[in-house]
Design brief:
Elements (H helix, E strand, L loop, with lengths): L2 E4 L5 H13 L5 H11 L11 E5 L5 E10 L2 E9 L8 H15 L4 E6 L4 H6 L3 E2 L18 E5 L6 H7 L4 E4 L2 H6 L11 H6 L10 E5 L6 H11 L5 E4 L8 H6 L2 H8 L5 E3 L4 H7 L13 H13 L11 E3 L3 H13 L4 E4 L9 E4 L1 H7 L2 H5 L8 E4 L12 E8 L5 E12 L2 E7 L6 H20 L4 E9 L5 E7 L4 H16 L4 E9 L6 H18 L2 E6 L9 E8 L2 H17 L21 E3 L1
Parallel strand pairs: 4-5, 8-9, 8-11, 9-10
Antiparallel strand pairs: 1-2, 2-3, 3-4, 5-7, 6-7, 10-24, 12-15, 13-14, 13-15, 16-17, 16-19, 17-18, 18-21, 19-20, 21-23, 22-23
Helix pairs in contact: 1-2, 8-18, 13-14, 18-19
């Protein structure tokens, strides 16, 4: 394993030789290299002053070096050279990330990089942004061989909220999605919770830097390796294949005393998708079922009403909601609204990702032959009848927004941020977080109301992550619709944005796409190959690709969840378009290949993988 240490003055001559060998690797002639020699020479008295570090292998062989020069707030990456035999092995990536880490510690907020043109692709892939003008070395005027390309990076510490979430350290991520859903017993949810096992893969992203992942289903080894490489993680343990059906992930962990002891004995926080009784037993956390009462859509509506009754939230309106006494009472309410030409939202008490939420227009009631006939097609169980909020006339305007935050063990509310959601026909499809994702006019009232909800949750005894979902009405006001007392798709995007900002520099937009359709079911090796190709293709655009949910690729109707990140909405859109296009096209290679006797997905049992 490569490690980084401070260079020693006595190594100056050897390091100069490494620099010149690395420069020569790009095919420059002897005359050009001679012209650069004086500038690239490292003198013993400069080693400490220029903050030079080296990367070395376990045998102590120096593989590369880097320098961080200047002081806060502006500094320079003066040197970053890798031994030619080690180029392409990740040494440069390790050195660059070490420079950014040290820059943050020293208060640097702007890092200037003058790159050899052959290394420009590396810096772009690492997240540096090309400056508007080129810088040239004294020995090589602009336009001639060796002209340097200027990049800049904005070193950033891990966000305050992210430090507070896990105490600033790593965490054990427990993918108990099915277990969380099952405790509500809602009729709109799949009894087997099969889809929830796919979404448990999001456990990789429950905090910015996990130490271990605990997953119900087996996952592809290549997936975890790529995610770790994209997000700069090392030493992540994976425990998968613990339960293939049913919601009993934490019970399966507790049934393995050695595993339970390993997960709980390191002193690291355990982070679940959501709170459950089994998780409380595993984590040694008191279980209070009433903590989750505002997961109920009716209870959340009541909380919203009490907050608005106290005043101080202009621009926020609350849709009317009635809990129907029974199915026929719901039918009467729906029929009355349909006769008035109004659309209605029918909600189950609980639901995930839009399940149990149906928007019904007056025309649909007529086409179904009346409200009773239409209700017979919906899941059984109690219904909430809610006023439908008409959206902005502009189809391109923001419609669905969300607030994310959490209540820490001391009852303090931490604001994470606001996100723009992609919701189609009442079903969540994804979300975008980061600078400029949410319209300026909406951000202030949304954050203020979300914080007020957080205070209400804290007062009720809830501790953990939560979000508040909103729709925008025709007059540009925000209407809160529900709370989720658990992690969510947008929360995953916030975690990845926090990690990328700390790893690559500030300013990332991150989009999570819930389902990207695949043109064919892929064998595991080909799925790994596709994801690697998508990572390279997005990097060429200046974006980052992270596969979020791989196991859906093995379903009869294959799909995967993905994350893409960039520093502009244009690049983000281009990266998502590339991913969707390439994913849809994979079927061309496998039109004649679908073995009937081979399980399409991973078939490993429970185990540990680094």
């Amino acid at each position: 394993m490569v490690k980084v240490r401070a260079a020693r003055p006595a190594e100056a001559e050897a390091l100069t030789g490494l620099v010149m060998r690395s420069k020569a690797h790009w095919g420059y002639d002897a005359a050009f290299l001679a012209s650069c020699a004086a500038e690239l020479r490292i003198r013993p008295d400069e080693v400490t002053a220029r903050r030079i570090v080296v990367a070395e292998d376990p045998e102590g062989t120096v593989l590369g070096l880097a320098s961080l020069e200047g002081g806060a707030p502006l500094a320079t990456l003066g040197l970053l050279f890798v031994e030619p035999s080690a180029i392409g092995q990740g040494v440069g990536r390790i050195l660059y990330r070490d420079v950014l880490r040290r820059a943050v510690q020293q208060g640097v907020r702007r890092l200037v990089i003058d790159s050899d043109p052959h290394a420009a692709g590396f810096y772009r892939a690492m997240g540096a942004v090309a400056a508007s003008t080129a810088s040239t070395a004294s020995a090589s005027p602009a336009g001639l061989p060796g002209a340097l390309v200027r990049f800049e990076a904005a070193p950033a510490p891990l966000a305050d909220w992210a430090r507070a979430w896990t105490g600033g350290g790593r965490a054990v991520h427990v993918g108990n999605v099915a277990e969380f859903n099952a405790q509500f017993g809602d009729s709109s949810l799949d009894r087997e919770q099969s889809a929830a096992h796919h979404y448990s893969c999001l456990a990789a992203f429950y905090s910015p830097y996990p130490s271990a992942l605990v997953l119900p289903r087996a996952v592809p080894a290549g997936w975890t390796e790529l995610v770790c490489r994209q997000l700069g993680w090392t030493g992540v343990e994976v425990y998968d294949g613990l339960v293939e059906r049913g919601p009993g992930l934490v019970d399966a962990v507790r049934a393995r005393p050695a595993l339970a002891a390993r997960l709980t004995g390191a002193g690291e926080p355990l982070v679940p998708w959501g709170l459950t009784r089994p998780f409380g037993l595993l984590a040694g956390r008191p279980w209070r079922a009433r903590e989750l009462r505002y997961e109920s859509k009716a209870a959340a509506h009541g909380l919203f009403g009490r907050i608005l009754a106290e005043g101080g939230h202009p621009g926020i309106v609350l849709p009317a909601q009635v809990r129907a006494a029974g199915r026929w009472a719901a039918a009467r309410l729906l029929a009355a609204r349909a006769r008035a030409g109004e659309s209605t939202v029918l909600k189950s008490e609980h639901g995930v990702g839009g399940s149990g939420t149906t928007v019904v227009t007056a025309g649909q009631v007529r086409a179904a032959g009346g409200a009773r006939a239409l209700l017979r097609r919906l899941p059984r169980g109690p219904l909430l009848v809610e006023e439908f909020v008409d959206g902005p006339a502009d189809p391109g305007a923001a419609r669905d927004l969300t607030y994310d935050g959490f209540v820490d063990p001391a009852g303090r509310v931490h604001e994470v941020g606001a996100a723009l959601m992609d919701v189609t026909a009442g079903a969540y499809r994804g979300a975008t977080v980061g600078p400029g994702a949410v319209p300026d006019w909406a951000e202030k009232p949304l954050l203020a109301f979300g914080a007020a909800v957080g205070r209400g949750l804290a007062a009720s005894g809830y501790r953990g992550w939560f979000d508040v979902d909103f729709v925008v009405d025709a007059e540009g006001r925000l209407a809160p619709t529900e709370t989720n007392l658990r992690l969510t798709g947008p929360s995953i995007a916030f975690m990845v944005a926090a990690r990328l900002d700390a790893l690559r520099g500030a300013g990332h937009l991150v989009r999570i796409a819930d389902r990207v359709e695949l043109g064919a079911r892929l064998p595991e090796a080909q799925l790994d190959e596709l994801c690697a190709d998508l990572a390279r293709g997005c990097a060429e655009l200046g974006a980052v690709f992270v596969p979020a949910i791989p196991t859906g690729a093995f379903d009869p109707a294959p799909w995967m969840g993905v994350l893409v990140a960039a520093r502009s909405l244009e690049t983000l859109d281009a990266a998502e378009a590339l991913v969707r296009s390439e994913a849809a096209a994979v079927g061309a290679m496998f039109d004649a290949f679908e073995p009937a006797d081979r399980p399409p997905g991973p078939a490993r049992g429970a185990g540990e993988r680094p």
